[in-house]
Description:
By secondary structure, this protein is an alpha/beta fold. The chain contains ten helices and seven strands. The chain has one domain: Rossmann fold, CATH 3.40.50. Helix content is 39%, strand content 15%. The protein binds adenosine-5'-triphosphate and magnesium ion. The site of magnesium ion has 5 residues, from helix 1.
Amino acid sequence: xxxxxxxxxxxxxxxxxxxxxxxxxxxxxxxxxxxxxxxxxxxxxxxxxxxxxxxxxxxxxxxxxxxxxxxxxxxxxxxxxxxxxxxxxxxxxxxxxxxxxxxxxxxxxxxxxxxxxxxxxxxxxxxxxxxxxxxxxxxxxxxxxxxxxxxxxxxxxxxxxxxxxxxxxxxxxxxxxxxxxxxxxxxxxxxxxxxxxxxxxxxxxxxxxxxxxxxxxxxxxxxxxxxxxxxxxxxxxxxxxxxxxxxxxxxxxxx
Length: 255
Ligand SMILES: Nc1ncnc2c1ncn2[C@@H]1O[C@H](COP(=O)(O)OP(=O)(O)OP(=O)(O)O)[C@@H](O)[C@H]1O
Ligand SMILES: [Mg+2]
């Protein structure tokens, strides 16, 4: 089983878009996949078409687990029409940063939730993180086997990479020695010189991690959001075929 955190503390770099489309692509390749929305903004949940109901979200699971109360992971799992399962988030997750500070083993709460036996049946669990280096991210990293870092092919987008890799290294050297960077994914790549320069800089600094796949900048990425469908499910979508290619690379790097 691979549990993959999709992380970058920079906002708007394509984390949620990558989570949605990579999950759809993995499902298309026959892999059972669970998406976890781990961002209080709940963009991924909206993307998936989630509408509030009485079943628990990740916010209630986290609060339950942090307070040593029972939590019902099974009822929190929903199914999207494209075949990926998901656990939604809501704004209540924003409180986690506050109560986790006063919780014992505060970095290991999500790991306890993901240890629920029913989740062992998923070949892939993808965790969509919020843009921060806070306690939600460390919880995700502690619970994961892998990290994917989407990097927007834009000016200044490499600033902050050091801080992020430092957090990953810290988690690896303390609580979770099995954690590894699965890959770095250039997103929103276009024909500008800046875009090319960023991809070249990534090749210099992070060549061993860089995927061969890059994701183009295309309006269809944003259009798919409104339809609650992945680009992967849309016939002839360039972004969709790029994410299918990424899924191949992720599967290859699996063992
Ligand atoms: N390849 C792409 N081409 C064009 N637009 C894109 C692409 N990928 C994502 N976008 C758009 O860019 C915006 C930010 O993308 P997304 O929400 O995936 O980023 P994020 O890293 O999850 O943001 P946040 O840090 O706020 O959670 C969205 O409007 C999305 O539709
Ligand atoms: Mg997001």
